[in-house]
Amino acid sequence: MANIDEVLKIHVPIWHDDHWFLLVIDMLAKQLLYLDSARSAKQRDSHVLQIKKVALFLEEIVLDESWYACKRHERPTISEFKLVEPEVNQQEVGT
């Protein structure tokens, strides 16, 4: 596993509500990218909640010094990264 201060992006597939979506954590841009090819307005809030839970979990993990090559590196506050929802091609319902 790479040191967290050398990682550019973390890809986290998430299964929730019988549906897969992808969270990409962009460490340089300080963004949480929510990618969903079957986006649903009624599931969005619960998906965003799951994204926040993952961000908080990772933030807690990377508090440990052993994740860093440079011990003086600033610890990322992943939970405060901006949530971005880029447009992605959408699946047809039922596919």
Explain what the structure shows.
The chain is of the alpha+beta class. Helix content is 22%, strand content 25%. It has one helix spanning 41-61, and strands at residues 9-16, 19-26, 31-35, 82-84. Strands 1-2-3-4 form a 4-stranded mixed beta sheet, covered by helices on one side. The chain is elongated, with a radius of gyration of 15 Å. The model has no long low-confidence stretch (mean pLDDT 87).
List the helices and strands and how they pair.
Blueprint: E1 9-16, E2 19-26, E3 31-35, H1 41-61, E4 82-84
Parallel strand pairs: 3-4
Antiparallel strand pairs: 1-2, 2-3
The major beta sheet can be summarized as: 4 strands, mixed
Rg value:
15 Å
> What's the number of helices?
1
Give the overall shape, derived from the CA principal axes: elongated
How far is the first residue's CA from the last residue's CA? 35 Å
Helix content: 10-25%
Mean pLDDT: 87
Unreliable stretches (pLDDT < 50, length at least 5) are none
From N to C, what is the helix and strand string?
EEEHE
Largest sheet, spatial ordering of strands: 1-2-3-4
- Structural category: alpha+beta
Beta-strand segment tally: 4
Strand content: 25-35%
Briefly characterize the structure.
It contains one helix and four strands; from the N terminus they run E-E-E-H-E. The chain has one helix at about 40-60; strands spanning about 10-15, 20-25, 30-35, 80-85.
